[in-house]
Specification:
There is one protein chain. This protein has 131 residues and is an alpha+beta fold. The protein has a single domain (2-125), classed as Gyrase A, domain 2 (2-Layer Sandwich). Helices cover 33% and strands 35% of the residues. A five-stranded antiparallel sheet has the order 1-2-4-3-5. Strand 1 and strand 2 form a beta hairpin. Helix 2 packs across helix 3 (116-125). The longest helix has 18 residues, at 58-75. It is globular, with a radius of gyration of 21 Å. The relative contact order is 0.18.
């Protein structure tokens, strides 16, 4: 009788243990990229908004936003982009991201700098559309 109680208690604890869902990078990724809107705010400051479905998490939305920013920088003749901020929201299946970026001819200061040409190549290699 004691063995049954110990086994039952052990099984109950195992059933309550958190399940490791693994790294999200291992999940199937079938993104649907939507609209991209760019708006020059002032000087070299630009707002870029994106929509997508099928994102694994907010990082996928930020990557889409960064790709759009990199291409926009190249179109405007700038070689670099600095991410000032990004906001990501999810509503149902749709993810929306809004980023504020500065465009620059030289490497800007800050922690989130993007070499526009290198980023555009990476975006193409990863099938992430740009502006």
């Amino acid at each position: 009788m004691i063995k049954k109680a110990i086994i039952s208690s052990t099984l109950a604890l195992v059933a309550c243990a958190p399940v490791d869902k693994g790294d999200v990078s291992q999940l199937p990724f079938k993104p649907e990229y939507g609209a991209v809107q760019t708006r020059l705010l002032e000087g070299e400051l630009v707002s870029i908004s994106v929509e997508m479905q099928g994102a694994r998490n907010g990082d996928d939305v930020i990557a889409f936003n960064d790709c759009a920013a990199a291409q926009y920088a190249l179109i405007r003749g700038a070689g670099f982009v600095r991410r000032v901020r990004n906001d990501v929201k999810k509503s149902g299946r749709t993810w929306r991201g809004e980023g504020i970026y500065t465009l620059s001819d030289s490497i800007p200061g800050g922690t989130h700098t993007i070499d526009a040409e290198v980023a555009a190549e990476n975006c193409t290699a990863n099938n992430i559309p740009m502006v």
